[in-house]
Amino acid sequence: MTIQDSGTARPAGRPRSEKAEKAIIDATLDLIGEGMGVSELTIEAIASKAGVGKTTIYRRWSNKEDLIVDALSTLKAPLPELSGTSVRDDLISLVDAMRQESGDLRSRCVMNIAMSEADRYPRLMERFLKRAVEPRREAMRAVIELGIATGELRADLDVEMGMAMISGTMLWHTKWGPAGGLAPDLAERVVDAVLRGMTAS
Amino acid sequence: MTIQDSGTARPAGRPRSEKAEKAIIDATLDLIGEGMGVSELTIEAIASKAGVGKTTIYRRWSNKEDLIVDALSTLKAPLPELSGTSVRDDLISLVDAMRQESGDLRSRCVMNIAMSEADRYPRLMERFLKRAVEPRREAMRAVIELGIATGELRADLDVEMGMAMISGTMLWHTKWGPAGGLAPDLAERVVDAVLRGMTAS
DNA sequence: ACGTTGCGAAACTCAGACGTATCGAAATTA
DNA sequence: TAATTTCGATACGTCTGAGTTTCGCAACGT
Known about the structure:
The structure is a homodimer of 201-residue chains.
Chain A: H1 18-33, H2 43-50, H3 54-58, H4 64-73, H5 87-103, H6 105-116, H7 122-150, H8 159-176, H9 186-196
Chain A binds a DNA duplex (30 and 30 nucleotides) through residues 2, 4, 10-17, 20, 42-45, 47, 51-56, 58-59, 63-64.
């Protein structure tokens, strides 16, 4: 009460290790990145990989799902800078960010989880979607709406359909495309293909 | 050796029940359709749901994965009849088949598994892909190539990109579209959107 | 009739993982 | 120094599910 009293009175005793907390979350994400599904993740494996006692985990999270929620929540969406020179360029930037992420094992597996286990762990996904995918959706929506306003894109374009075309085409490549990473120019090719369409002339 | 000797000599004893086998595979697919991932499926749950002893399962499959491989292999791809009147119509038929399947819980969950657990169970997926998705890919590829030949589609169209655009756009809707099923006219809208592209005029 | 094989049910062993409790050591406050 | 809290490690009891075995019965050939 005398010296350190800024807001919350620090209780006596050894303080919790920030490093341990970070190591736990890191280990969790690493294991997810190694292809583990939510139901295959074990607290014991996480503790072991983090070099931490199970106690230290249970002192912070009451169960496995809580831990995973927090771990996924730390994944932020580093949206690319948009040059704004043209809708095409901005879309390419956004799509290329997707391409680069598809090469990262961790992001890739998180995506897998998001797509397949959303039904089973709804509150886990609710939080993750809000944190990680909503910002990207909004960014792309804004670009498309801008394009419609400036006349670069069809005036009668359904914005949701446009997003589905671009993101879906890219998603398809990340899923069923060649194993060894995606070509660097794929983003450009995808955007041009979608902008132009398949019909002749 | 006297009467029934057509090719394989039937061994003595009670023959294996076809019905039990069918019930086992059905129960497996049902549980998958209820949202269970591969690692959450239990032999005991399958046996219980099928009204069958575990023995009967292990007599046929040596482990869980073998059973799931066989179960998924029985899912056939009922490709739609293609009218052949136009590339647009044929594509709509193919995409609408995807839409209808997306409403079926079982197919939906199988798709989830295929997309997220392919890395973890490679031989499971190898077989499933060959059986279930290759035929559809081939059908769509044939339609697109025909369209290029007849001039309905751009001569310089990348066939793989075209497939990615159509299937990916539809995939996007099945994943992040409205919860209560997809609109009946979605296939038509998707195909027209992809054919036309996003660019103005 | 009789031997053989499959059947469902139940009991069993074994491994893995959960979540808790306990330990001595370390870090911090008073 | 004393009290308090966390640390990593380890042991513990419990539970779930894999895969095996046993049992009495049913279905099939000879």
